[in-house]
Specification:
homodimer; 473 residues; alpha+beta; Uridine Diphospho-n-acetylenolpyruvylglucosamine Reductase, domain 2; Uridine Diphospho-n-acetylenolpyruvylglucosamine Reductase, domain 3; Vanillyl-alcohol Oxidase, Chain A, domain 3; seven-stranded antiparallel beta sheet
């Protein structure tokens, strides 16, 4: 627990105690897979968000769907919260036991159940991570594109409607989950979707659960779309005189309809941090990191178009990485930005924004956000899945200095308000969690949030599933 | 009303009478835009399905969101059904007033509100049709790809989660609606989504309403994704010795990951019918009708790969259409298959199937379905969006001969059971409507349908929105 604990904004939530009778039944079924040891509870009571809350009362390590169904049914009976836990990489406090209850660790449910190479589908347990899946798929000549950076579990990625670097071409978890096995509070285990590519059979329960942040049930299994590994892949970096020129290059690429596979922005602070962290020796300037997928001829054609656009915006030092090794080095650097930046200020915590706007307004909001943070003197970095109009500013705050956190929150607030004026969203991929609940109401409106609450009350009448997240009831 | 009326399977549904007080209030607000004339009611009481039901008690012609909100609020107060009505092209009885009530005609809400060329988005009223939209967009160098054949309204297309010929590359309404303005029974007008390409802000209400078949609220406005008109477009037809070889060609194309834009199958009966209807002189053999989008080089490359695959499967007479006129002629023929086939048997009605399966199982189920119908002697045709694993068999039944309808239903039943064994769906794009409710339970399971019912009860507590569709409460 750090100094911020007593003042966390959610500290007035009701804490719901777990009755002794429930703990006994959990211990009876799960034995050593039910832990009340403080270190285990503490490890499951935090995530990558800057928030702190008391740990859950117990941690259950589920091994199969029946384990999950047992826990949810028992919790439903006793009105006790259940918080599904995957890799622990949430940035929005999703994993915090803000109302007490049980953390349901899904990481032992990590089997790849079935790869259908002919249909380009795979069925996995929720605890499988994206790297685990892609390591397995490589032998089949296939891959799963959704890449939020962290080696998250696929269940967690579904819960937050994750996306990341490949979304500009391949979509997000919304587009790539074909079906789910969910354990629900009201109806036990249910199956949604099918292995068909499309369906008009009833309400789209798959899409309702994708992005529901654990508040409607527990993702146990997922059937996902796969893609053939592209015949040719080429990555490129290019440096720009300003963030503005880098973003304008992106906007123009997207508007042409060019099927770029990845288009990532790193600001100068991010480049400096990864240079230190990964010893890369990159030029210290705003940078686009791009990737192209297709046939060799198509990749070459895309690359030529992009180079021409970039040069018009002052892009220089175009550098190509066509071998897997050189590409992996670049993407590893991209994925280490978050931790590399944390290390530039020892002991800091990171308040991360996640706005996403219509592509034509992206330069405007990034420029304004940079000016705004520069004026405060707070250390920060900017990275972006700019092809989607999505970017993150990380504010590096000293947890011992409450005014820094307040400054970061005020910057974030102004950025979200700006994004909403531009008809964007307060969160492109991280979810609402604890922290963006007021933003959700501002973005969606009171009526739409009222409809969401009706859904929650209908599907989780005792409010046991990850309570206190997305909205308060 | 034809001879089948008294025996329609849904004739035992409760009919809910509209109180005189409600009619007076409708007449007071809408004047001539509230019609109780029998021909108007009859026209709004049927669709392209083979079913008949008594017409609605009144038809309201809405002009704006406030009109819709007024009707829904009044109907909510009086517990009277409201059935949103667009182009009337439903194939599954969605527009039939099976429990009485008001048909809400949306076709006068046909304004394109805002085209954002820079962001590739458009906002339209629900009564805009897809052809109207694309005629407008052409001047901007953009298009909206979803093409269910009929010139449906975009509100109707959202309601049934429509797809059609371009879905293999561009997705369905599920992937292409960014946001909605809905009038809901509980919370009036609400907005879902934003103009950002992706979002993790709360429950995915957009996807919940897309495909809800008018049972949760009325679609009033839609914000849609657009695409730049491809630099090059090329269409091709190719004839095969059997349906099996045509489908196997498709499977192989999809498995390579080639970004084919359209891939349509026409069986020999469909080809004969369009030859008669459109005077085309096509070779009478199973045919694939394909389209490729991209740069000139990429289109040429795709075409070469596809020709090689097709030749391996006995494909012959590869014929290219690269001018807009020659392409339009082919696609007009494709879109007239349904009506062309109806005309081959004057007075007939069509029972249409809509199964969709994982691509590797497509040849198997089409072959079995053709054998099955051939054994009955019933006239039929097969068309398919085969790139998605989706195909339709149309059974042409004489409405005066009840045994033909029974035969068609039995064939359809066996095909759906087959599709479900192959992990497919009973409906790829037409929806559940009246007719596939038992199939939905078989496909989704009792638990998932129970969850759908909870959603319906929460969002439409008086069951006024298009009652009796998808499931009975």
């Amino acid at each position: 627990m750090n100094a911020a604990t007593p003042t966390e904004f959610f500290s007035n939530m009701p804490s719901r105690l777990m009755p002794e009778a429930m703990l006994e039944r959990l211990q009876g079924r799960f034995g050593e897979r039910c832990s009340t040891a403080l270190p285990v509870r503490q490890q499951h009571g935090r995530d990558e968000s800057p928030f702190d809350a008391p740990p859950p009362a117990a941690v259950i390590f589920a091994q199969d769907n029946e384990d999950v169904a047992f826990v949810v049914a028992l919790a439903h009976e006793h009105h006790v919260p259940v918080i599904p836990f995957g890799a622990g990489s949430s940035l929005e406090g999703h994993l915090l036991a803000v109302q007490g209850g049980v953390s349901l660790d899904m990481t032992r449910m990590n089997r790849i159940l079935r790869i259908n190479t002919e249909d380009l589908t795979v069925t996995v347990q929720a605890g499988v991570t994206r790297n685990q899946l892609n390591n397995e798929l490589r032998h089949e000549g296939l891959f799963f594109p959704i890449d939020p950076g962290a080696d998250a579990t696929l269940g967690g990625m579904a819960a937050t409607r994750a996306s990341g670097t490949n979304a500009v071409r391949y979509g997000t978890m919304r587009e790539n989950v074909l079906g789910l096995t969910m354990v629900t509070p009201t109806d036990g285990a249910i199956h949604t979707g099918s292995r068909a590519r499309k369906s008009s059979a009833g309400y789209d329960l798959t899409r309702l659960y994708v992005g529901s942040e654990g508040t409607l049930g527990v993702v146990c299994e997922l059937t996902l779309k796969l893609y053939p590994l592209p015949e040719a892949v080429s990555a490129a970096i290019c440096f720009f005189p300003s963030i503005d020129e880098a973003v304008k290059t992106t906007i123009q690429i997207i508007q042409t309809g060019l099927p770029i596979a990845r288009c990532e922005l790193l600001d100068i602070n991010s480049v400096r941090a990864v240079n230190l962290h990964d010893k890369l020796g990159l030029r210290e300037a705003p940078m686009l990191l791009m990737e192209f997928h297709g046939s060799p001829a198509s990749v070459a054609e895309q690359a030529q178009i992009v180079q021409d656009v970039a040069r018009d915006h002052g892009g220089e030092d175009f550098d190509w990485a066509t071998t897997p090794e050189s590409r992996n080095k670049l993407w590893k650097a991209r994925h280490s930005v978050y931790f590399a930046c944390l290390q530039t200020r020892p002991g800091c915590r990171c308040v991360t924004t996640d706005t996403c706007v219509p592509i034509s307004r992206l330069a405007e909001i990034i420029n304004a956000s940079v000016l705004d943070v520069e004026a405060t003197g707070l250390p920060y970095f900017v990275v972006g899945h700019v092809g989607d109009g999505n970017f993150h500013v990380g504010y590096l705050v000293d947890p011992q200095v409450p005014s820094e956190r307040a400054t970061a929150e005020a910057l974030s607030q102004r950025m979200v308000e700006h994004a909403l004026r531009l008809e964007g969203t307060c969160t492109g991929e991280h979810g609402i969690g604890l922290h963006k609940q007021a933003f959700l109401i501002e973005e969606a409106g009171v009526g739409a949030v009222a409809v969401m609450r009706l859904l929650k009350q209908a599907l989780d009448p005792h409010n046991i599933m990850n309570p206190g997240k997305i909205f308060e009831l």
